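In the present case, backbone shapes were mapped to integers, as reproduced here:
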Amino acid sequence: MTKDIITIMCRGEPIYLLKSELEELTDGEWFLSLLLKYTKNKTEIEIGEYKSLVLSVIESLRYKKIILLKHVSLDLFEALCDKWCCPEWLLESIQKQKKIPLNEPIFKCVNCFIGFKMSENTNESCKIHQKEYNS
């Protein structure tokens, strides 16, 4: 491999990233930024985490929103982000995401017949909403 490529070894599975791409994700003082800073001459870094979990963190930082790859739980993702001291915006996004119930049912307003979720329903959602609803 060339020096422009960083290999992150995750429990035996490699992740190949352009060094410049990884540097773009490393704003501030958190695990990957410090690791890159203090291992400038290394082209391979060992991380004892699952590849899909590490990629979930990298993709989330790249796209500035939570990206969970298949089989990565939000709790495990949160634990790694906390362990790695990820940027505060990501940790706050995780907390917001955890407050949203999964598979929340959608109800239909008996007045306006619009669908809504209880977690998003407020007294200002519809001018004719009342306490009554049906599912």
